[in-house]
Amino acid sequence: MTKTYDRAYFDRWYRHGGIGHAARLARKVQLAVATAEYHLERPIRSVLDIGCGEGAWRAPLLKLRPNVRYLGFDSSDYAVARYGRSRNLHLARFADFAHLRPCPPVDLLVCSDVLHYLDTRELDRGLPALAELCGGVAFIEVFARGDGAEGDEHEFKQRPAAFYRERLRALGLQPLGSHCWLSAALATHATALELPG
């Protein structure tokens, strides 16, 4: 059975008591923004959200930084048809980022709750874009085997954490913790204890 990212899906998992509680999302956004601004040493100006769904990150981002440029991409026909114009969302599958470069590198790249649902071939095709399109910090929320994460388990790939860690590091991204990764451009300026040993 193929998963459909329609209104019912977003209602179940991101509204009506699902995993997308507004306060929880606001804390994630605050963490990602603060981490990016700490390393950039200035307020963020641009955000690219890959696998954005309905663009839920947009409102809390604009609440913190009203002038930020937000651009989202998702494979959900429903989300893009309903919110594309009002939230600047565009249709694309993750693998499309093998060639898609819709903007210059951004201050904050978001890829939240996406990678653990992709088959390995699609993941590997699109993954280099995360590093190439991130000029500051990437918030890559991904769950691995044994994490005990709550949420949609349909088509969840039970991979070890090392699977993701090795691929992201190979692209030049450096782990900062709490799902945040430092771009290669900024990693050379990080101090020894800002990065894991």
Question: What tags apply to this protein structure?
Answer:
197 residues, globular, alpha/beta, 37% helix, 7-stranded mixed sheet, 18% strand, Rossmann fold
Summary, kept brief:
This protein is an alpha/beta fold and about 200 residues long. About 35% of the residues lie in helices and about 20% in strands. GO terms for molecular function: methyltransferase activity.
Commentary on this structure:
The protein is an alpha/beta fold and 197 residues long. The protein has a single domain (7-188), classed as Rossmann fold (3-Layer(aba) Sandwich). The protein contains seven helices and seven strands. Strand 2 (69-74), helix 4 and strand 3 (89-91) form a beta-alpha-beta unit. The model has no long low-confidence stretch (mean pLDDT 91). It holds the Pfam family Methyltransf_12.
Uncertain regions: pLDDT < 50 for 5+ in a row?
none
What's the CATH architecture?
3-Layer(aba) Sandwich
Shape: globular
Order of H and E elements: HHEHEHEEHEHEEH
Tally of contiguous helical segments: 7
CATH class categorisation: Alpha Beta
Major sheet characteristics: 7 strands, mixed
Radius of gyration (CA) equals 16 Å
Please identify which CATH superfamily we are dealing with.
Answer: Vaccinia Virus protein VP39
Neighbour order of strands in the largest sheet: 3-2-1-4-5-7-6
Name the helicity range.
25-40%
Mean pLDDT: 91
- Beta-strand segment tally: 7
Q: Could you tell me the strand content as a percent range?
A: 15-25%
CATH topology assignment: Rossmann fold
How far do the termini sit from each other? 43 Å
**Total number of distinct structural domains:** 1
